[in-house]
Amino acid sequence: GPTCAFKDMALQILPYLLTTSIKKLGVDKKVVILVATSGDTGKAALEGFKDVEGTEILVFYPEDGVSAMQKKQMTTQEGGNVGVCAIKGNFDDAQTGVKTIFTSKETADKLAENGMMFSSANSINWGRLAPQIIYYVSTYAQLVADGEIELGDKINIVVPTGNFGNILAGYYAKHMGVPVNKLICASNANNVLTDFIKTGIYDRNRPFHTTISPSMDILISSNLERLLYHLSGSDDAQIREWFGSLSKTGRYEVTDEVKKAIADEFYAGCCDDEQTKACIKEIYDEYSYTCDTHTAVAVKVYKDYAAATGDETKTVIASTASPYKFSGSVLAAIGKDTNADEFGLVDELAEVSKIPVPASLAALKDKEVRFTKVIDKADMKDYIYSALGI
Ligand SMILES: *Cc1c(COP(=O)(O)O)cnc(C)c1O
Questions:
Q1: Tell me, what CATH number does 254's domain have?
Q2: 227 FRET partner, CA 20 to 30 A, in 180, 214, 244, 261?
Q3: Residues 163 and 286 grouped into a single domain
Q4: CA 385 to chain centre
């Protein structure tokens, strides 16, 4: 897609779904899209919504929590209805800030007075999840067409996970009929999901790690709430209790039945930056392929899974990013020099990988930076009001 993210497909469709719904519902308000991003969502949402009539989009990213290329992608964004702002904090701070603003009556009233309303382009928006289900249906069909599997054979799916959106789309694909054995959830050093899937205890009281796979640097995975709703038999009171406990104490523990339901369908693993880099090197040595840092986490977790279980089911690994967004980390992993500036690194990676540099990334080199604001996380609301001129 236009921003070299797997998120592009859903975020190219979402503006159409949204503007169509608004017309159908007879809403005459301008829709203000608020986004918290760990790198890729922000840019993909900006491209999807840029200059879409009746919308305005504002993106918050953690100042030191995205790659140099991701930052350049966002700060050079074109369009008359866009705003981009860095916050001093991590992704969870940005996401919590956005969620707080969303649920504040005062802010909603203020927007309404000015003929505006909020919506989200994060994967808490169902319009993000639904399009992604197609990835898994399409992949399965492709495997059958290629003769890799027989129709009806089960496959495993490994997804490098952050907010639990992409893997949840895989879960929906399974429950819509795609034959899936295990959904394998791969995390980096921010391994709160690994522990949860293994023990049934979700505990975000742990250090936040800034890693070389920044789009997975998350300790509060929003879409897990949806999974638990399904696995608890749509028990909304139970879900409210668990997630109330999560915001109060940072922790909750699910029932034995839910634990068992999770273990039936999911497997989880994690790896740190050193293991991720070692995996990139292994893949490069074996296949001359330069794998990005997020996909490499999934490959490593899959290798561990296969070794631990002996499961030989045909497995699909979701590859979520272009290596060119993380050129420095990929080059370092395969033992190359990383002294050049960001676009020097891109050229170097192109020589090594023999993969053409995506035109949209190459073009960033000469683009003017439009957005340089960095704010405290407490000032997000003021930034929004000022950007909207209200
Ligand atoms: C967003 C993203 C992820 C995580 O996807 P979730 O749906 O948030 O779990 C993984 N890798 C990359 C490159 C991403 O941009």
A1: 3.40.50.1100
A2: 214
A3: yes
A4: 27
